[in-house]
């Protein structure tokens, strides 16, 4: 990692990062990455007040997903969208690495694959490497720790033997896995292809395979859901506050056919989240409808507004996070008459289960075909996840076309029926149920716009149009507003704008630059309408005057001519300056330019206005040219104390008070920093087991009572912090510790309490593994998430080398039935690595970190901690 000051400023020296917060990229991680990026020379640009990204200044967008509103606009501006892992990779290698392998685009199916080929023939090797790199992967000729997959035909190659001997975490797969992924265009599970004993060579192709669950179908199985799946906080059993509708206006189309009661519920949810319903398309931020037709739909589409259906709206309510409606097929309004080519088809489904089956039923119906539950001879198609089932055998006997779900999905996404001769639609990998990749297909937006947006795709102001508008507006500001002639010139200029700009919705540059909530439309005035209607091209002599020209047209010409004559001096000055710059190479600008322009304006005013008495005139010039001195801002006091607050209740639901108090503290030399930064004091009302508290306690921060901050704010003075050390005997007795002892131990441990200790965590644990990861890694532990498909990640050791007995390895878990299934597998993995497995409740980690003393008690074992666990 780059750690020298000289190199630090060069790594990201010309980069301007902006971050997109999501479930995959938390706020705490953004703060850590921002600090590292700033340290190594980058500039971090914050989002605007309306939540939009500052695309005008950003050079890199850091996002772990492409599901954010401005993704298409960012790609059209050629701003790279990359995952947060790119920053970490750059810091490790002390140089900017390739961007492509770190793309969040799901179509780059091998974006996190580092491939190294073993005993593969040269022709096949080149094809595999080329296709992998085209889909976001990278290739390494040598076997390094970064290699994730070795492509081999057997375990006899030295690379495979070395990987096995050193217990590297890379997977050794047959080339068949790459071949199947290339054919499908999707990344399937590599478990059946793993050497030394691959399942595709060991098991019968027609054997039973568990039907997988798909994570891509959540909230997107139906275009018209029957109910609102209102989210509930599991801890408080109340509905959390929605923030996704903050400042948004939502329009519900009349074709949704929802009851008045349901509409009132939706209105209440949106209002509680800071939004509102509207009946006007021009005023709405988001448009919700069921079908892709109607005047309102077309108007919203041409205005570039996000358009989704009721299922999409419910998904926003459930997830409380933005998602693009074209990201999932059944989140966008359906075609009223289906997809061309599907009418009259009878389609059955096989080998799909659960939500995948419901999703396919609704997708087939939305396409215009008829879904049948049973397979009959009059069926035209069978959609199956595997080529083995009774329905598949019947389809072969009855000569019925058989395809996988990709045929239906891509036909719907491209708004036309796809040819079944394409190999990807009839490819069925052995020992794989294609239900694991269902729901990943996104809309072809260009096809959607071409077919359903009359007049073409939504038109947005080009950069050239915006620059032209900005130039004309600046020219208008340069003219004195007092004279009638200039007022007429401004009207002529607006008329000129309407005549020249073909875009009906012109973005006002002043609004756009200030980060306003939405573009402002400029409508043609009644004065400008005749000029637009009578605009035409004549053929003939240039100086011939047509007899049909109206007086308004002649007036517009005279005003435009008058306007141009007023700019003659400016044009001459520009040409003169251009020659001077070409001759001397010395550009002109800054204060010198401002002073000369100001004098020029004064001369214009003195000529156009009646001349006053000489003395008064001199006084007037002096009053204009002599600007009042700017009052300098008082210098802020140097930061003397950095604090982190947790559990502080003074600012709850009062953002304005929080901002004012933060400024007041800053004036006293106290800076409230975000979690993850270094701090002098950790401030809390009592002992709490929050992530902030445990993380900063592990760093040895002195813990103060929140009354210290209250005193600072109330008195305007900073009292001695030692008089406000946190004392909470009740919770100390409850947790069996003394806080000051824990602080002293933390200062001694220096974040290394759990250094080198492996701690695993189940993926479905309450509150999620991310919070426990932050706490564990703050104390030096090796934290890993353990799931059903997790392989062996413990390096086996010789028992004779451990005279003190096997070291412990922990798995944080609950008594959830799905997590219980992992216990035996985890214990076997630990014992094979000569380690002692301990499946414990998460409270073990929290209590150990709170006491800052590594200990273990059998009461933390899940079989003892949770009643009924076995």
TrEMBL record:
Biological process (GO) annotations held by this record are: DNA double-strand break attachment to nuclear envelope; double-strand break repair
Q: Name one GO cellular component term.
A: nucleus
Residue span(s) of domain BRCT: 7-104, 105-195, 342-414, 643-726, 810-862
Q: Which stretches are tagged as biased composition: Basic residues?
A: 457-470
Q: Which domain of life is it from?
A: Eukaryota
A Pfam family assignment: PTCB-BRCT
Bias (Basic and acidic residues) occurs at 532-544
Region called Disordered, residue ranges:
454-562, 584-633
Compositionally biased residues, Acidic residues: 474-483
Q: Tell me the InterPro entries matching this sequence.
A: BRCT_dom, BRCT_dom_sf, CellCycle_DNARepair_Reg
Name of the protein this chain belongs to: BRCT domain-containing protein
Native source organism of the sequence: Apiospora kogelbergensis
């Amino acid at each position: 990692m780059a750690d020298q000051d000289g190199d630090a400023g060069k790594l990201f020296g010309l980069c301007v990062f902006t971050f997109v917060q999501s479930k995959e990229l938390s706020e705490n991680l953004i703060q850590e990455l921002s600090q590292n990026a700033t340290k190594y020379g980058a500039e971090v640009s914050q989002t605007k007040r309306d939540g939009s990204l500052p695309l005008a200044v950003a050079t890199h967008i850091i996002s772990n997903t492409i599901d954010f509103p401005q993704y298409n606009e960012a790609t059209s501006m050629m701003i790279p969208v990359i995952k947060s892992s790119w920053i970490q990779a750059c810091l490790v290698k002390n140089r900017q690495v390739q961007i492509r392998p770190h793309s969040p685009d799901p179509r780059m199916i091998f974006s996190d694959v580092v491939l190294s080929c073993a005993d593969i023939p040269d022709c096949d090797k080149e094809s595999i490497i080329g296709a992998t790199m085209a889909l976001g992967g990278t290739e390494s000729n040598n076997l390094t720790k970064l290699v994730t997959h070795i492509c081999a035909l057997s375990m006899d190659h030295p690379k495979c033997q070395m990987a096995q001997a050193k217990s590297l975490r890379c997977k050794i797969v047959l080339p068949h896995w790459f071949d199947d992924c290339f054919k499908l265009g999707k990344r399937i599970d590599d478990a059946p292809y793993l050497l030394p004993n691959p399942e595709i060579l060991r098991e019968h192709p027609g054997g039973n395979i568990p039907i997988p669950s798909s994570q891509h179908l959540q909230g997107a199985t139906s275009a018209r859901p029957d109910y609102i799946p209102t989210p509930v906080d599991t801890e408080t059993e109340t509905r959390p506050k929605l923030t996704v509708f903050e400042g948004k206006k939502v329009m519900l189309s009349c074709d949704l056919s929802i009851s008045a009661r349901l509409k009132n519920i939706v209105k209440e949810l949106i209002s509680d989240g800071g939004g509102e319903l509207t009946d006007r398309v021009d005023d709405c931020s988001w448009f919700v409808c069921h079908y892709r037709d109607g005047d309102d739909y077309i108007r919203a589409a041409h205005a570039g507004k996000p358009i989704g259906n009721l299922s999409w709206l419910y998904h926003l309510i459930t997830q409380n996070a933005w998602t693009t409606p074209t990201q999932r097929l059944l989140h966008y309004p359906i075609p009223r008459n289906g997809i061309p080519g599907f009418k009259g088809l009878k389609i059955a489904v096989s080998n799909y289960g659960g939500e995948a089956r419901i999703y396919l039923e609704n997708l087939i119906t939305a396409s215009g075909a008829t879904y049948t539950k049973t397979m009959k001879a009059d069926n035209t198609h069978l959609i199956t996840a595997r080529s083995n089932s009774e329905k598949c055998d019947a389809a072969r006997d009855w000569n019925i076309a058989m395809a996988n779900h990709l045929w239906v999905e891509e036909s719907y996404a491209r708004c036309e029926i796809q040819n079944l001769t394409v190999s990807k639609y009839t490819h069925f990998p052995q020992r794989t149920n294609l239900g694991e990749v269902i729901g990943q297909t996104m809309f072809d937006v260009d096809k959607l716009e071409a077919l359903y947006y009359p007049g073409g795709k939504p038109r947005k102001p080009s950069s050239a149009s915006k620059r032209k508008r900005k130039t004309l507006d600046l020219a208008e500001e340069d003219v004195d507003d007092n004279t009638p002639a200039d007022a007429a010139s401004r009207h002529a200029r607006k008329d000129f704008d309407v005549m020249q700009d073909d875009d009906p919705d012109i973005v006002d540059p002043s609004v756009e630059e200030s980060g306003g909530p939405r573009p402002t439309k400029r409508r043609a005035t009644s004065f400008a309408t005749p000029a637009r209607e009578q605009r035409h091209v004549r053929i003939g002599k240039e100086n011939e005057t047509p007899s049909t020209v109206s007086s308004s047209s002649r007036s517009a010409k005279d005003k435009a001519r008058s306007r141009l004559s007023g700019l003659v001096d400016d044009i001459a000055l520009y040409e003169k300056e251009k020659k001077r710059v070409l001759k001397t190479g010395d550009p002109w600008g800054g204060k010198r330019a401002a002073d000369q322009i100001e004098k020029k304006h004064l001369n214009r005013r003195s000529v156009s206005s009646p001349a006053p008495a000489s003395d008064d005139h001199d006084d007037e010039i002096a009053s204009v040219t002599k600007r009042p001195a700017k009052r300098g801002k008082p210098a802020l006091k140097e930061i003397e104390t950095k604090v982190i607050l947790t559990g502080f209740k003074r600012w709850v639901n009062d953002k304005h008070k929080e901002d004012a108090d933060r400024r007041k503290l800053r004036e006293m030399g106290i800076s409230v920093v975000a979690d993850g930064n270094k701090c002098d004091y950790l401030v809390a009302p009592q002992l709490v087991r929050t992530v902030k508290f445990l993380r900063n306690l592990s760093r040895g921060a002195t813990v103060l009572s929140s009354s210290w901050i209250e005193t600072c704010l109330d008195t305007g003075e900073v009292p001695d912090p030692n008089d406000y050390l946190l004392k909470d005997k009740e919770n100390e007795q409850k947790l069996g510790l003394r806080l000051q002892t824990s602080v002293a131990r933390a200062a001694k441990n220096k974040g290394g309490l759990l250094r080198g200790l492996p701690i695993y965590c189940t993926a479905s644990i309450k509150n999620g593994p991310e919070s426990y990861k932050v706490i564990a890694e703050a104390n030096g532990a090796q934290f890993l998430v353990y799931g059903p498909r997790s392989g062996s990640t413990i390096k086996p050791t010789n028992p004779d080398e451990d005279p003190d007995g096997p070291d412990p390895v922990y798995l944080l878990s609950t008594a959830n039935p799905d997590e219980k299934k992992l216990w035996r597998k985890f214990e076997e993995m630990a014992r094979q690595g000569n380690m002692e497995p301990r499946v414990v409740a998460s409270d073990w980690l929290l209590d150990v970190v709170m006491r800052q003393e590594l200990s273990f008690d059998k009461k933390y074992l899940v079989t003892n901690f949770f009643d009924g666990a076995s």
